[in-house]
Amino acid sequence: MSKSARKSVLPPAKSHGYEFGGPFGALAISLLVPAVCYLTAFLCNDVSGCPVPSTLHPRSLTLQKLKEEVGWPSAGVRGLASWSVTGYVLAYYLSSLVLQAALPGVVTQGAKLRSGARLEYKFNAFSSGVTVLLFAAIGTYLQGPDFFLWTFIWDNYVQLITVNLGIAFFLACFVYHRSFSVKAGNHHKRELALGGHTGNLMYDWFIGRELNPRIDIPVIGTIDIKAFCELRPGMLGYVLLDLAFMAHQWKLYGGLTDSIILITLFQGIYVFDALWMEPAILSTMDITTDGFGFMLAVGDLVWLPFIYSLQVRYLAVYPLHLGLQGVVGVLAVQLFGYWIFRSANNEKNRFRIDPNDPRVAHLEYMETKSGTRLLTSGWWGFSRHPNYLGDWIMGWSYCLPTGIAGYIVKHGSPAVFPLGDMVDDEGIVSLGLPKQQVLQGEARGWGILITYFYLLYFAILLVHRELRDEEACERKYGDDWAEYKRKVRWRILPGIY
Questions:
Q1: Is the pLDDT of residue 291 over 60?
Q2: Which end of the chain is more exposed for a tag (fewer CB within 10 A), N or C?
Q3: pTM exceeding 0.85
Q4: What 3 state SS string does the chain have?
């Protein structure tokens, strides 16, 4: 029997313990994520304002008034969902599966599993994304901002959240139940994730028991559920949401502001860069370490598209004009962050490939007992995770174009402002609807809680990711990692963290 075959019949490795606060943390996050998605949808809207006026006067707040201002469905809780929206969303997911199966792609092998085996992956997310956007472009050319896709997304925003939450919940339950059929020595190369089989139902369902759950679908073929969700429905949905919000601004005001173009451009580049570099996911912790459970399902399919696009949704209603200086300032922030992010990653990758490369040959390093070289100068002497700093700085360019956010929707007879001068000296904007206008008023500044929420969340995400990286490196390098930390003291930002 070969060494690989002997490994494959071994029982699954012991779980390495709880993360995310254990079962209580898993439950809290599972409830908090949907709550935040609904709150941002209702509390920042085109019905009454962002945030809704009643929240600025909590002492006089009444449930009835709040329901009116947030646009609560007339059908109550049942109005949060829709069978027709469910059908369209499922058709979108099916089209993603068909495109993955039908379009040509690159077939490559993933990282080595504990059994010694490797899984095969087919990558064509970029061409799939281009195909979908080509369809959207044709529809927009023919129908303008009234193209069905754009109006459907805007009119059914809350229902779209509900349907995708339902899909994430279903997938988490499906793969959790199915994971109990994983047997040692199976020929499908199925394995349990090290952190996903603690024996606690809540935690294992959340974190994911099986490492790479796959399913065979007639005609379409074998689908790796985790890899599919990682970049396809949610990531591309992120771009489609942004474009729908742009179309709404265009429909209301007859044009587009520099602020909404800028953010959509940044986020579009971010998404299609990820789609183009799709094979890179094979080295990420999501693929190599984490199981697939509710955490990844809801993160990929709900949190990423609906939370990351909040700024563009805000600007769809309150179209802020930045001007040349504002655009240059935002571009400077984006480029500065990207310079740090890309320079740090390039430095590390070049050193890994060829330490004698003239561009990195001068760098200092320490050699571990395992033979790995850890950089102690250059960007990686600056801090242990300089790329995270660049990533976070880039996040500011997504939020700054919303300015000092906040607006109130007033029902009256507005003056008409041309697109170039949408916002007057008092922060008043006319809507392209009869007897309705938008002004900042007392809401000015309070909208920051929503449009800049991404920065707070992303900082927490990066710090948590850094802590997980540190834990993994301590397990891998032992005493060498302690010595490395003495040489490179700071985690992300020198002098602060």
A1: yes
A2: N
A3: yes
A4: CCHHHHHHCCCCCCCCCCCCCHHHHHHHHHHHHHHHHHHHHHHCCCCCEECCHHHHCHHHCCHHHHHHHHCCCCCHHHHHCCHHHHHHHHHHHHHHHHHHHHCCCEEEECCCCCCCCCCEEEECHHHHHHHHHHHHHHHHHHHHHHCHHHHHHHHCHHHHHHHHHHHHHHHHHHHHHHHCCCCCCCCCCCCECCCCCCCCHHHHHHHCCECCCEEEECCCEEEEHHHHHHHCHHHHHHHHHHHHHHHHHHHHHCCCCHHHHHHHHHHHHHHHHHHHCHHHHHHCHHHHCCCCCHHHHHHHHHHHHHHHCHHHHHHHHCCCCCHHHHHHHHHHHHHHHHHHHHHHHHHHHHHHHCCCCCCCCCCCEEECCCCCEEECCCHHHHCCCHHHHHHHHHHHHHHHHHCCCCEEEECCCCCCCCHHHCCCCCCEEECCCCCCEEECHHHCCCCHHHHCHHHHHHHHHHHHHHHHHHHHHHHHHCHHHHHHHHHCCCCCCCCCC
Cα separation of 304 and 471, whole Å? 25
> For residue 348, how far is the Cα from the chain centroid?
25
**What phi and psi values does residue 5 have, to the nearest 5 degrees?**
-70, -40
Question: What does the pLDDT look like over 457-470, one tens digit per residue?
Answer: 999 999 988 988 88
Q: What is the pLDDT of residues 50-82, one digit of tens each?
A: 999 999 998 888 999 999 999 999 899 999 999
Rounding to the nearest 10 degrees, give the CA dihedral for residues 97, 102, 103, 104.
120
- Per the listing, tokens 């400077």 go with 332
pLDDT value of residue 97: 96
Could you tell me which residues come within 8 angstroms of residue 225 by beta carbon, excluding any fewer than 6 positions away? 171, 175, 213, 214, 215, 292
pLDDT digits (tens, 9 = 90+) for 210-258: 999 999 999 999 999 999 999 899 999 999 999 999 999 999 999 999 9
Q: Which of 427, 407, 405, 428 is nearest to 416 (CA)?
A: 428
